[in-house]
Amino acid sequence: AQSVTQPDIHITVSEGASLELRCNYSYGATPYLFWYVQSPGQGLQLLLKYFSGDTLVQGIKGFEAEFKRSQSSFNLRKPSVHWSDAAEYFCAVGAGGTASKLTFGTGTRLQVTL
Amino acid sequence: DAEITQSPRHKITETGRQVTLACHQTWNHNNMFWYRQDLGHGLRLIHYSYGVQDTNKGEVSDGYSVSRSNTEDLPLTLESAASSQTSVYFCASSDSVGFSGYTFGSGTRLTVV
Question: Which residues contact B96 (CB under 8 A, 6 or more apart)?
Fold first, then answer.
């Protein structure tokens, strides 16, 4: 069965600092990987996704993530964090195909200090 | 514009009552999913459907049921609400052709007292 681990429950960074959120997955084949962001009281919005090809993927809001098969990781990065990036971030893994369901990590809450 | 809507946004109910949460999507997606979100657990899959008349149990399906009579709707029913079912519930949908991830509703916050 597929699984996702987000080892950091809560991260605090200063505005303008760089950010890296960790995600490790477990899946037998090449996974479909996603990062979602959830602002308080809102649903989840897709930031970026990886299916195949270039292992560095670009997303919305200046985020990027790198797929590293050897480390079973899909870490999310941003070079300079803005106060509006404060939210909860979820990594998810799926099998792909026409009938795929996603397994989510427990989330990382990002706090941004001014 | 296509969308996925959940109703109600907030609901308080009493233990033992039957409750139904609505999910309606206009994306014409075949796949629909119900998750619950709890602190420390992330999102956990309750039930899902890959098309009309198809329903499947997820990892936390006990006490919940769904039915799919058309493409647009997947209502989630709590047969006899329990305090352990106090949670935020999210509905999501996805296309069955060229999977590109989920589109989520805004969620329903359910409190069972």
Answer: A98, A99, B29, B30, B31, B50, B51
pLDDT digits (tens, 9 = 90+) for A18-31: 999 999 999 877 78
Report the residue of chain A nearest B33, measured CA to CA: A101
Tell me the pLDDT tens digit for each residue of A42-62. Answer: 889 999 999 888 899 999 999
A interface test, pick of B34, B36, B43 with most A CB neighbours within 10 Å: B43
State whether A44 and B94 contact (CB < 8 Å): no
How far, CA to CA in Å, does B41 sit from each of B45, B60, B96, B110? 11, 12, 27, 17
Q: pLDDT (tens digit, 9 = 90+) per residue, B11-27?
A: 999 999 999 999 999 99
CB-based contact A101 B96, cutoff 8 Å: no
Residue B64, strand partner residues: B78
Q: Which candidate, A59, A49, A70, places its Cα nearest to that of A19?
A: A59
CA–CA separation, A37 vs A42, rounded Å?
Answer: 9
The answer to whether residue B97 neighbours chain A at the CB level (below 8 Å) is: yes
Rounded Cα–Cα distance for residues A5 and A17 (Å): 24
CB pair distance less than 8 Å for B42 and A105: yes
Q: How distant is the Cα of B5 from the closest Cα of chain A, in angstroms? A: 11
Amino acid in the structure at residue A88: E
Mean model confidence pLDDT for chain B: 94
User: Given the DSSP bridges, would you call strands A3-5 and A24-26 parallel, antiparallel or unpaired?
Assistant: antiparallel
Residue A25 near residue A33, CB atoms below 8 Å = yes
